[in-house]
Known about the structure:
Layout: H1 6-10, H2 12-19, H3 26-31, E1 35-39, E2 43-44, H4 56-69, E3 75-80, E4 83-91, H5 93-101, E5 106-111, H6 116-129, H7 135-149, H8 153-160, H9 164-172, H10 178-185, H11 191-197, H12 203-213, H13 217-237, H14 246-259, E6 262-268, E7 271-277, H15 281-292, H16 304-309
Parallel strand pairs: 2-4, 3-5
Antiparallel strand pairs: 1-5, 3-4, 6-7
Helix pairs in contact: 2-6, 4-5, 6-7, 7-9, 8-9, 11-13
Amino acid sequence: xxxxxxxxxxxxxxxxxxxxxxxxxYASLDKVRLSKMVPIEHVRPNxxxxxxxxxxxxxxxxxxxxxxxxxxxxxVVRRIENEPNVFEIVAGERRWRxxxxxxxxxxxxxxxxxxxxEALEVALVENIHRDDLTPLEEAEGYRRLMEEFGHTxxxxxxxxxxxxxxxxxxxxxxxxxxxxxxxxxxxxxxxxHARALLGSDNPTGLAQEVVRKxxxxxxxxxxxKSAKQTxxxxxxxxxxxxxxxxxxxxLERDLSHHLGMAVSISTRRDGGSLTIRYQSLExxxxxxxxxxxxxxxxxxxxxxxEEIVEI
Length: 311
């Protein structure tokens, strides 16, 4: 007996059920009545189907193929509890939709005994493996397989024939702003565009510019790089606020203590300003009283700071 494939074991019993054992084929499945023709109205889609969008062009092509050759690859289904003659699709909803459009009365199915989690695992990996999800649907599929089933990026990459970095970068798309993800979902931005925007400080603004100018992926990468360099240069050139002169700070403290109010002094080349902050009309009246009691004939300095000190 052949040893169990470690990769399939790691991916769970649900995925093993999708791919089958080494010596298993559809002929042997027929013998044990796991594969059979069922009325198309007895097959229902799965509410937890990972794919949310079905390409009209793709469905039309598949419909034409099914009209000519029938459904070549059976649909993977599982039984619905308390409804023995009704089946839920685990993998193959696109084939089922196209078969309906081709007006078939029956479709071939493979019946699997799967739990809810196993059925979800099969549906996720089957869809990703067929490479016809949108980038965000693919990313969500990877995320769920890692979070809900504990699969690593490396195991997933091997299962779907992708690189580990592809899996990692695709999952990162889920962190983009919602308006950028909307542009990806509607097809205005490709997965390549989206990955280029991941390194941007302003993905929303740049995404809108990419769409407006119809930039390709390479041009988008250059746009992101240019924007980052510009931001770095601005940050490097930004003036740092100069520290206040120690003598000015000391004078502020002395005046604040003398008046019992907060005082701030700002200086410029051509002079400066002194600000006294009061909290009530009584405090303002006190300041005015002090100013009005300066003795007649007292020397007035040209230095505004010196005048305030003498109050």
